[in-house]
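Predict the holo structure. Ligand: zinc ion.
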Amino acid sequence: MLPPEGGENATDQVERLIALLAKLPGMGRRSARRAALKLLRDPGGLMLPLADAMRATAEAVRPCRICGNLDTRDPCHICVDPHREQDIVCVVEGVADLWALERARVHRGLYHVLGGVLSALSGVGPGDLRIESLLARVSAGEIREVILALPATVDGATTAHYLHDRLRPSGVVVTRLAQGVPMGGALDVMDDGTLAAALKARRPA
Ligand SMILES: [Zn+2]
């Protein structure tokens, strides 16, 4: 049977699903096809619950206006936690790094998510990152130390230098992770012990 005029047939829908799945990190076209097949084989047990969970999460989760973390509340649960050290802010590239530090339970202060790192190659400039909001937080005067927990890449180092320069006039103490971070290493793939050691042994930037 021919699909209705202008309508979308089943193959188009499956192809669209595969194309969307293939946008996920670590998913090539081939893994996306396998995932789609797995979902299609179990619509009631897997595909619809997943679709429901995705819709509910998409509607409930938003970026924290203070730190940029993703949470169901804004400000996020970390920013409003009175037991956290309010005068130490750990600057990370992305939410995955924040989650890695939280998993490792090594940082008891607050965070600031930049939303990327400076990159001449990818055309990411200071205006594309949450830098002004970091400077505003620091000028508010409560913050004593800023820990730069950025990836050990050229772009990560460039970003750290840039931030250090911008933070210097405020007089805040700026530190960075010790060289426990493997070169080229992203924070969220480090094991908890390495991450803890890198944070404990942090030194002046
Ligand atoms: Zn927050």
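Residues 1 and 197 are 64 Å apart (CA to CA). The pocket of zinc ion is lined by residues 64, 66-67, 69, 75-76, 78-79 (CB under 6 Å).
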